[in-house]
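ok so i was messing around last nite and threw this chain in just to see what happens. nothing serious, just curious
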Amino acid sequence: MVILAFDTATDVATAALVSEGEVLGERRSRAARILVDIEELLAAAGLAPDAVGGIAVGTGPGGYTGLRMGLVTARTLAFSLGVGVAGVSTLDALAAGAPGAVPVLDARRGEVFTLANGRGPAVLAPEALQVDAGRTYVGDGAVRYRTVIEARGGMVPPDESDLHVPWARHHAALARTFGPAEKAEPLYLRVPDAEKARREGRLQT
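result:
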């Protein structure tokens, strides 16, 4: 089956076409270009859109706008192509690209998204991140807080390393069950700014 995979949860968006474990093509750009990237991937592989048998989409955590863009794109394409969708955590995909490493994404506001101590995803301050001496930490959060991690004995690959990118090929590899598009829910680890403002009475509805 040909799987179309993409992730727009971080500043670097990725997209890939994978068939039976073989990567037919892959792109990295920005969330705003995701549809263009998909069109180019299909054209380069010589495939029509109806060759896609399933969609794997990144569910975050990540930036609210980029994440929503990816999920809306997945749902729109799933409807038009008549295929199922599998949601894949951006953290899990990042970890799959660097076996044994800890994924750390930049959550802004002085925080990071990570898989905390081998458990589920969490948002926390970089100083609260448990760092094991000699272990590798990857992702744009690891790059941003390199000094914090390395001061505790952790290792962070060079800034330009591909290990910091949640490549879409890994989303395709991790996708297990393709079902209704609406079941691919975004992984929000904190309340969006607008909702927080509304709850605090700072935003009129």
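not much to say yet. The mean pLDDT is 93.
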